[in-house]
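Sanity check. The docking grid for coenzyme A depends on where the pocket ends up, so I'm generating a full predicted complex first rather than guessing from homology. Inputs follow.
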Amino acid sequence: MTDLPASAAGVRLGTLADLDAIFALQQSAPECAQWPRATYAAILTAAPEVNPQRRIFCVQRGEHVAGFAVASLLRAAHTGACELENMAVAPAGRRLGVGRMLVTAVLTWSQQQRAESVHLEVRAANGAAVQLYERLGFVALGRRPAYYSHPVDDAVQMTWIADGGGAASC
Ligand SMILES: CC(C)(COP(=O)(O)OP(=O)(O)OC[C@H]1O[C@@H](n2cnc3c(N)ncnc32)[C@H](O)[C@@H]1OP(=O)(O)O)[C@@H](O)C(=O)NCCC(=O)NCCS
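Predicted complex below; grid placement will be based on this.
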């Protein structure tokens, strides 16, 4: 894949062959957004030149997909932003740097796409994810009370700003 971030060694773009693994990873992680399988299929089916706005990044460990992240570009008139929409790492493979690799790949890709910032929302109670994002430079800039249900929780709105204000970057 031509737009695989050079600085994200070990991360690759997902393909349709990863669909089962990605969906299984999602189901193993109740903290992440629970999307229909068809949503992943649609993203994975669209070739990058057809859908340049959305990507699924995967980390492979041996024969298994150890984690995935979904990101999309949000275009406005004179600015660009990126959203980290969803991610999960296999429960047995956590705390080994996979999440860091995936978020780094999303940040690198967003910079390549000349976006200025990366945004996400995360459950306030999801300490692992909040800490991961903070470690990589995201800052909590907002909160949506009781945004999530089952269980009820606030959404923390986090933003990462590209160095240089995004002149040639995210
Ligand atoms: C959040 C998640 C993606 C982290 O993936 P991971 O591969 O375990 O993360 P990493 O190993 O790359 O951790 C990088 C850093 O994040 C932080 N971190 C990760 N897991 C943590 C935990 N359980 N508790 C506290 N900090 C944690 C740490 O700062 C860690 O650095 P360190 O290990 O040097 O201390 C993973 O726990 C997961 O899939 N959770 C369920 C799904 C989810 O929450 N998705 C995000 C929805 S917005």
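Relevant for the grid: Residues 165-170 have pLDDT under 50 and may be disordered.
Also worth noting: The radius of gyration is 15 Å.
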